[in-house]
Amino acid sequence: MKKKCKKVLSVILTGVMILSLSACGGGQSSPTGNSSNSVSSSDSAASGEETASGEKPVITFMVPSFYGTDLKNEHSDEVIAKYEEYTGTHVEWQWESNDTYSEKMGLTLMDKDNMPMVLTASGNLTANVVDAAKKGAFWDLTPYLKDSNSYPNLSKANENVLKALTVDDQIIGIYRARVIGRYGFSYRTDWAQAVGITEEPKTIEDVYNMLYKFTYEDPDGDGKDDTYGMEMTKYTGPIDIIQTWFGCGNEWVEQDGKLVPVHQTAEYKEALKWMKKIYDEGLVRRDWATVDSGTWSEGCKKGEAGVFIDVMDSGKRIWEYFIDNDVKSVTNPSENASMTMVGPINGATLATSGFNGYFLITKSGAKTEEDVKNCLHFLDKMNDNEMLVLADYGLEGITYDLNADGNIVQKGGLEPQYTPSSGLNQSICYIPNPASTSPTMVKTEPMMAQDAAYAVNEKVAVFNPALGYLANSEVNAEVGTDIEQIIEDARTQYICGQIDETGLDAAAKQWLERGGDRLVQEINELYTNDTAK
């Protein structure tokens, strides 16, 4: 083994993190203390118009921060002025680090007296959110989403997707729409050429061979042992994607007419054994379980790793980094390096749920119906073309130009975290459109490759068949978050060699004993009784 192994620190969670409950200012905080006090009438609340005193309605909004630069960069004040003027709303942002967001979310749900009006949740419905919903923590949005006059964008939400955000027949959240085929496999094109790989990987063995060659056959041609196959992070989404290659499903899988959690399948263990093999052979970085998601792509950008498994837009952004920073191809120095976006391996990849994250309107934060209308007005207006352009592309003349046809041409030079509108897209539902329809983006080669990968992925993307049932499972609301963590921790520990297969089995047994057996039973009862499936 050419690479020296470093001892990997334990990733066992040792307790709930104690985090500050004070809001993190985004550089534009209002002197207003209580958001509900800033609303004067239902008319102004519904329309977002200024109150009689000239003050804009105020909403408080908790969102994840991926870079720590959210609306704090040069020209961010111009972005703030634009969305406030357009929506007629002042937003007090509460930015929370994405790496600790789930812990902060849990603490916020317990702190009933200090909830923001709009609370962003990551991923799909979780047990603690469902439990809070059953206790009446959130507004029922069902009647509002039927009001197409007041909310012309939000009222077009997909009813099937909304089912996954329905608890006790009440729609408690507004989803953030996502491409179904967003996840997949990308790799550095010139590195593959340098090590003699002429075809895109199709099988798991193809991927292993690529990772091995990228690690041990000097793909950058510098004569040094300074590369490894794949970039990874403590965010374990890439492992979820890899598992689908082995046929074990997406969190749950249908087998013999029943829904089974994937960690109970033989395919799951096969996938983890493969992951452990590439870890033991040094084909991934030794400290991957401690790498923050905010710096995760740096290894590929800096030429340390050649494979990136996550959303296809991450592969696109790495390619754009090569272009913006004039990173040359190692096989053809007259060209910039590029990424090949394969998408599926072994004929499969992970499907999204059609959304990733959602917005909850809390009853302790939004105390009145006027507050609710303020929040919904802002969320609806942010889906207009003007705000989609502002959030996704920034400011004309600074981060994009308009060509002769009036369409958007992005300007290079600034990475996403340094743009004026950094973080603003975290407030957008992308309903009904994933991007501005007028003006539209003039697409670059990386963008077109990303879209092509999306189309391929969607045909083979593996869905979670239990998603809707989990949202309405009482057992999941009771124990789901805790027992899920048991499996997450054990998976990471097994790959890193901290536990063996016996330890993996012990974790699966503990999952059952702490409520997993009841969860499987209830999910299958809901599945059996679902006449619409």
TrEMBL record:
Coiled coil: none annotated. Residues 29-53 have a biased composition (Low complexity). Residues 1-25 form the signal peptide. This is ABC transporter substrate-binding protein. It comes from the Bacteria. Residues 27-53 are annotated as: Disordered. It holds the Pfam family SBP_bac_8. PANTHER family: ARABINOSE-BINDING PROTEIN-RELATED, POLYGALACTURONAN_RHAMNOGALACTURONAN-BINDING PROTEIN YTCQ. InterPro entries: Bact_solute-bd_prot1, SBP. Keywords: Cell membrane, Lipoprotein, Membrane, Palmitate, Signal. SUPFAM superfamilies: Periplasmic binding protein-like II.
